[in-house]
Amino acid sequence: MRTKVPFFINIPIIVSIIIFIFYIILGIENIKLIYHPISILFFFVIIILLFVLDFINELIYRKKLKSLTDIEKKNILDENEGNYFYRLYKFFNYKTKIDNLKQINHGFDDIIELDNKLPIWWVHLFFFTIVISVIYLCAYLFTDFSNPYQEYQIAYQEQLKNIEKFEKTMPQITIENATFNNHLIDSGKVLFEENCATCHNSDGSGNIGPNLTDDYWINIIEKDLFKNIFSIVWNGSKNNPTMRAFGKNGELKGNDIQKISSYVYFINTKNVSTSGKSPEGKKIINWNSVSIIKK
Length: 295
Ligand code: HEC
What we know:
Strand content: under 5%
Shape: rod-shaped
CATH class of the largest domain: Mainly Alpha
Largest sheet: 2 strands, antiparallel
Bound molecules: heme C
Structural class: mainly alpha
Number of strands: 4
CATH architecture of the largest domain: Orthogonal Bundle
CATH topology of the largest domain: Cytochrome Bc1 Complex, Chain D, domain 2
Helix content: 40-55%
Order of helices and strands: HHHHEEHHHHEHHE
Strand order of the largest sheet: 1-2
Number of domains: 3
């Protein structure tokens, strides 16, 4: 049987559709190769070869017709009558007619099986899924499109950028609105170990700097324990420059000081430490009644 559409029309159309789909997925930047003169030349050579192939096909078909019986010839001619476009039209409008249902009779069990061509829409759908699966596979293997790992990476990087942007523009906590927050203790601990542990020991029990887990305080500059801690880390100590102004000199941001202060407040108030550096300063039990020493 002859093809409905000649190769030299069929294949370039399919190739164009594939290129178009890749163009949609990849964007113009990545398919520049297709516009290269050599690619275009290659494309034209293939079309000419297909044209020749089609011509040979036609010759074989005519030759073959001569060697057939009259009935066979009639059947084949019926099926292949008209030009390409008429045959294509017939192909798309193929309908199963009830009176020429093909049947297979098993004979022994009286069951009659129908043996007809599949509906044409079904066949097309089937080929369409094959084409789509090939495109999808290529896109999955060679591009970022539809690859879950790549998509995850892209979304992840974007999220990180957004967080960075957010942190830059986010208003930082100041002494006025700083409060103790349970959830910040863990991240505060990490920051404390990075910035403070050299002088206060990683558990806050004191080293060069005083013990932060006892009730004795050298610096009393706020009427609230948490604010007092925040304030010292922000302003440093007036009597001893070794305890520097982490906030004022820009070493730590307000939000980080809130985290560190939450950790220091936590280790100070949970009162588990019995050892550590011996007490320095005034013992304070009730912060509300303290008189502020220095401001
Ligand atoms: C280079 C050493 C050093 C580092 C680092 C350091 N401190 Fe201090 N810190 C001191 C010294 C010394 C004092 C005592 C200041 C004084 O006598 O007034 C002190 C005092 C303090 C006090 C007040 C204690 C009191 O009794 O008045 C707090 C709270 C404190 N530091 C917290 C921190 C935190 C939180 C960090 C980390 C962000 C930190 N320190 C980093 C040396 C240090």
